[in-house]
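Can anyone check this?
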Amino acid sequence: MSGTTLVTTPAVRVSPGGGFWLTAYAFAIMMAFSAAPTPLYVIYQQRDGFGPFMVTAIFAVYAVGVVLSVFGGGHVSDWLGRRRVLIWALSISIASGLLFFLPGLAALLAGRFLSGIGVGLLTSTATAFLMELHLADRPAADRRRADLVATAANIGGIGLGPLLAGLLAEFVPYPLVVPFVVFEILLVIALLGVLAAPETVTRRHLPWRPQRVSVPAGDRGRYVAACLTAFASFAIFGLFTSLAPGFLVGVLGERSHAVAGLVTFSVFAAGVAGQLAMLRLSLQGALSAGFAALAVGLSALIAGIWLPAFAAFLAGGLLTGVGAGAAFKGAVATTLTLAEPHARGEALAGLFLIGYLGLALPVLGLGLAAQRWDPRAAVLLFAAGLTLLLVAAVRPLFRTSGAR
């Protein structure tokens, strides 16, 4: 595998290897910041007097920002430069963080929307940047290190954000201020690190166009099944970054912000573990394990809420995290197998579009249902809907003949 040509500037002070780790840090911190409000929503509800539906609306605004950004600018680093777009993403996140210091629901909504815009610019840009810096640093190596670090920074970063914010909210004063002061400092450090990284793309002047989306023509049934799997996987992660802390307080009686952050961190850490386990299994084996973990995890989650029992709730979260991570990785692998080489990016764009809709729509419906009905019944309906989606996806996806 050939290396990557660097486009250096006099300001660059680090090697490709150093740039790789600085970019990984920036990726992880931005994803952590994107999920930092999770254990704080209960405090916002008390301060501003809104219910579970508004929590999910705030989360949906973030998802809308991500979707708009992915399809408006997630691909422009191909010709404007990885470092340049990553600097934009970090700057937007820093601006988003400033909005959290302002009182009121409007500032919270605006901050979450801007955070989504930054993440939409970040994910594909940072993933490609890590790959290119890895190849420049180790021209003879395969891409495994870059894949593993990108996965850990992405999903692991989302888990670290609530953990850090929850600990700060629990043990230091001003729980709606101090976490964002800390994240602003971490984001500024990340921005300085990326400024020192070498560029890997020669800037070209091309007319802007939105990200194209295409459906593989070879087996559309499997592609639709992969999209349903992505939708369900993102819905699980959306639940634990929006309403789960409210269930901990209102249903399970657990009022610790640190515990709320730790639960969310554990689910996303399990998601990373599920994706890493995918590396050791065939595609069909990993999908089987992922679906099984999701089925058992959703059952345990429902039991934990209905009993109520915190241990069962946590076990359900861990199992659904493992299952969602493995199932989503399988959905991506299936899409890459089906798509023609020249259209892989467009096919993945469609998969991520459906995935991000799964991040917003199910939890939005769950929040509305929880406001009108018993929250336990709302979660039962949520789990039943996801189970039906997964059942619909099983047979088409398992026609992959065990391909890797």
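Reply from J.R.: I decoded it. Residues 86 and 122 are 6 Å apart (CA to CA).
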